[in-house]
Design a protein that fits this description.
The chain is built from eleven helices and 43 strands. By secondary structure, it is mainly beta. Strand 1, helix 1 and strand 2 form a beta-alpha-beta unit. The radius of gyration is 25 Å and the shape is globular.
Length: about 775
Amino acid sequence: MKTAPGATLHHSKASLWSASIAAATAAIMIYSAPGGAQQPLPPTSPTTNCPDPSPPFVMPSEIVSSGGILKGTINLTDQQQRLPKSVAGAVTCAPQIVRIFQAEGAPAPPPAPKPDPNNLPDPIAGPTLRAKLGDVVQLTFVNQVNSNRFDRNIDLDACMRVGPGGSVYPAGVNDVYPNCLHASSTANIHFHGTHTSPSTTADNVFLQIRPLPRNNQGNLTVTPAAATVALPDFFGTCLEKLKNPLNQWPVTWDDLPKPWTDKQWEMLKAYETRTPGQPLWTIDQKMYKDKQWPIYYIGAFPYCFALPAYTLPTWPPPPGSTSPNMGQSPGTHWYHAHKHGSTAINVSNGMTGAFIIEGKDYDGKINEAYGSYVLKDGKRWNTQSQPILVLNQLETAPNILAGGGPNPLDFVVNGRLRPKLSMQPGEVQLWRIINTAPRSAAYFMAPTGLKWRQLAQDGVQFADSNYRASENVPLFVAPGNRVDLLVQAPTTAGSTANVLIQNVMGRAGVQPTSTANPGTVLLSVEVTGPPVQPSAMPFLRRAPQQPPFLTDITDQEWAKSNYATKELTFDSKGPGKPVQHTINGVQFEDKGGQANVQVHLSRVEEWTIKNTTHIADGLSSTIDHPFHIHINPFQITQVFDPNENMTDPRTGQLIPDPQDSTKALLRYFILGDKTRTQDPRQCVLDPSNSDTWKPCQPWPRSNLVWWDVFAIPSGRLVTLPDGKTTKVIPGYFKMRSRFVDYAGNYVLHCHILVHEDRGMMFTVQVTGPTTPPSPPPPHH
């Protein structure tokens, strides 16, 4: 395969790889089932040929922007891999057929440390996208998955079928389409962390791209070249239109090249004809006639959008300015599949990758500080050669299909289980950590042997005061969260340090460090080679200065929007309930052309996000639902966690409970609970007085952290003094967000993705003076 024009594929100092599609096809057994047939899920029998216990750390391939354009092709294909699976310390490496993202023209993988006799590749994260502020993204997405190798893959009116002979959706689960697992070979891409248009060819998660059609022998009947006809012409026009990044172009279907739209109509008609009950072309035709953007596609789709740079020295922009109000935050972002109904299974297959957006006032300042240091390969230190750690929990089926269990899957790093990363004595590395897992949070325990400081959260850089206070502080990294860490190695060679985590569903699940709970090794660091030159590297004296648009959202700014507020409540019930995962008591739904949440452009709002999920009624652990909203980041102004564990304010370490050292001391002492000894450091929580259901310590009012995912603290079930009545005290946080620059429809949801697929998602509609409401797309 050839590299797409304008795409640059880089190797890092660590081995980079992504197997070619040709090799993948050769490695996979071809099924000759007719279209629409159902196949059992891939085999799960273990094999003894697992990789070495500590395989070398590897990095994914990269697509790098050039001349202001991030251009390339991302193929969605399927591949048989030896998938590492570790549950409670038992490791298997069964051959599994999974869906994966690959960059066209990516290099072949290097030999594995312990080769597989069947020549099966190891997993790897999708290609890293590396762009700069102000770039235009031009990515061709090609879906050439052979859907006959997976579950029943129709789009409308059916939940997933699995097992031998295509057995029905698991018994006892009451999910109803569309809030169920379905259509796992239909896909799209969400560019998580981008401040850009949510519409048409940008970060549009309502898109649904079916695989290219195949015949009964499994061969493509439409080539990728035919499915992408005339797209270079579209990208050229798009580049001109987006010279002003606030232009939301294209606007209508007719802005796309006619040869490409004609080919789409042709394939959609053929699909509808041969697949009864799947009127994708009819739905698209109605949307087109109603002047809406069609959502169904076959085989390929062009993504084209701007990454707006904020170039003014102050904020807000003066009246009449063409500058964006916010601008894209430089930092660590990511991309993943976001088709409602299949996000969990696709992400757990490995359909995720890093999206690094560089800025001269972030990457440039870090390079200025460290660029004089020479490493053992003779090259100077540079942010572009620093480790990217894409965390995931790899599986072929989510818990609802795989049976679940008390022990969650271990995390892999760039596809490898417990890899070994090398550092020189005294070296400082910039680790870009991305939790792309569909289920669990990774609690990073305080480092031993290493030191670290946090530079950014969710791709948004810290204020200097937060950076200075972060040294060696443990980190709770929920699904969807990103962390930029400066990590410092000791100055003597020959040592090995383990990075330890706890695999949890909520903060209350974290336990104090002890011999009984040493944590799980995520990766190890081997300190080897000569010391860095000219001398040991210090931490940055100051964090790079935040751009002006990240100024705190003040009470005065919020007041200009008449103190606009909203309240959302997330709740999960145990198995067997009619509806398990809801927001404000309802599931994701088509509200007859109305969004669940409506917001005006250029408005500041404060939302209270609650969580009433609690241990009881079939749930065995607390669940902190990771709240995520697209397009605009937000600031946290208050957090209340009724299950909060007390920590040492100096170190962030958990304080053990005096009565049980394996558990953390709870911050809130329940009034009337006679089984515990109250500690003077605790706060009283009165179940009968909701005025006490709030944080007992003042929340900072300046230098607030920006997020785009924040785990909502779980609720707490308590018994009233009568000993009979119970009450749920919800956890919550308050957030403020500027809804600026881009109007349109997008979503908010829980980033435990099986919750999102099963209904824990709302549509958000942002309108402005020149952008009248456009109804959200129909069910997908």
